[in-house]
Amino acid sequence: MTQSTKPGKTHAKRSLERYAVALETQRVQRVQRRTMTVLIIMQIVGTIGVGIAPSIGVLLAGEVTENEAWAGLARTASTLGAALMGLPLGNLAAKFGRRFALSSGWWLAAAGSTILVFAAQLSLIVPLFIGLLLIGAGSAVSLQARFAATDLAEPHHKARALALIVWVGTIGSVFGPNLGIPGEVVGNLVGLNVYAGAFLIAAVCLAAAGLIVFVWLRPDPLLRLQQLKPHASAPTGKRRGRIRLIFAEMRTNADARYAVIAILTAQIVMVSVMTMTPVHMAHQGGSITLVGITISLHILGMYAFAPLVGYLADRAGHRITIAFGIGIFLVSLVFGALWPDDTGWIIASLFLLGVGWSFANVAGSAFFSTVVSDETRASSQGGVDALSNLLGATAAFVAGPLLALTNFSALSVIAMFVLVPLAILTLSRPRETLAN
C-alpha cells in the first residue's frame, strides 16, 4: 500500500510545482506588461523635454554666450551631463530599484530645465552651463529606460521590449525640437521670451515623467527580479567596489565585452559623421530648411525601425543583427565618401547612418542585458551608457578639426576604419553564441 501511494504523491507534488511555476510566470508577465505601459508613457512625456537640448538649447547657447567657442562648449554640456549621470543612476538602480533611479534622473533634468528658464530670460552664462549639464540627466534616464524594459522580459523577447522603448523616444525627438512655437505662446502669457517659455514647458514635461514613474512603476521590475534571482543586481558595497566589478566583468565576460564594443562603435561612428554633416552642407550652400530635413530623416532612421530590429535580434540572433548594422553603416559611409557634394546622396547617407546605428545599438544593448552578470547588471548598464555618451561627445569634438583639416570624404573613410575591429569580432564569433 505504501509503495503504491508513493508514485501518486510524487505526481501530485510535481503537479503542484508546475502549477506554482505557471502562476509565478503569469505574475511576472503581468508585472512586465504594467512596466512596459508605464515606461512607454514616461518615455514619451520625458523625451519631449530632453529633445529641447540639441535644438533650442543650441540656439540659446549662441544667444547667451555671443561667442562661438563658448557656444560650442555649451552645446556639448548636455551630452557631458548624460555621460556623468549614467553610472550614478545605474548605481542608484542597483541599490534602490529602477523607480527611484529613473524618477531621480527626470527630476534632476527638470531642475536643470528650470534653471535654463532663468538663464534664457536673464542671459546668464553660468546658469546656462549648469542647466544644460543637469538636463543631460534626462538623456541618461531615457537610455536606461530601455534596460528597465528587459529586466522581466522573457529571453526571446528582450530585444523587442528594449526596441519598443527606443522607438517611442522618436515622439520626443520630433516634438522636443519644435517647442519654440508653444514656447512663444506660453512666454507671451507669462511674460517670458521664447527660449524661456520653451524650457518652462520642458521642465513641466520632465517633472511629469518623474512623477509618472515614481507613482506607477510598482512593483519595481529590478527589485522584482532580485526576488526571483536573489543575487540579481544585488548591492555590492562601496562605489569603488561596484566599478571594480564592472571592469572585472568586461575582462572575463567575452560576450558582454563584444556587446559593449558594438554599442560604443555605433555611437562613435554615428555621432562623428552626423555632427559634421550640417556644417558640411552649410559650406556647400545648403539652406537651414534642407539641413533640418536631413537631420529629421537621420533621426527617423535611428528610431523608426527599432521594433523591426528588435524582432530580428530575437529571431535571427544579435550577431546577425549587428552584422546587418555594420553593412548599413558601410553603405552610408561609401555614399558620403564618393558623393560628398551631392545633396541627395548626403541625405541618403545620413538616413542610412541612423538605420545602421539602430541595428548595432539595439542588438548590442539587448545582448548586453542578456549576458551581463546579475551582480553588476544595473551598474554595468549605467556605466555603458555613461561611456557611450562620453565617447560620443569626444567623437563630436574630434570630428570638427578632422573636417577642417581634411574633407567630408576623408571623415567618412576614417569612420569606416573605426568599424573594422567590430567587423572582425562579428565575423569571428560563432552564431550559436548569440542565437536565442
From TrEMBL:
The keyword rRNA-binding does not apply. InterPro entries: MFS (IPR011701), MFS_dom (IPR020846), MFS_trans_sf (IPR036259). Keywords: Membrane, Transmembrane, Transmembrane helix. Gene3D superfamilies: MFS general substrate transporter like domains (1.20.1250.20). The keyword ATP-binding does not apply. It is found in: Cell membrane. It comes from the Bacteria. The chain crosses the membrane at residues 36-61, 73-93, 105-122, 128-149, 161-181, 193-217, 258-276, 288-313, 320-339, 345-372, 384-404, 410-428. It is a multi-pass membrane protein. Residues 35-433 form the Major facilitator superfamily (MFS) profile domain. PROSITE patterns: MFS (PS50850). Coiled coil: none annotated. Pfam families: MFS_1 (PF07690). This is MFS transporter.
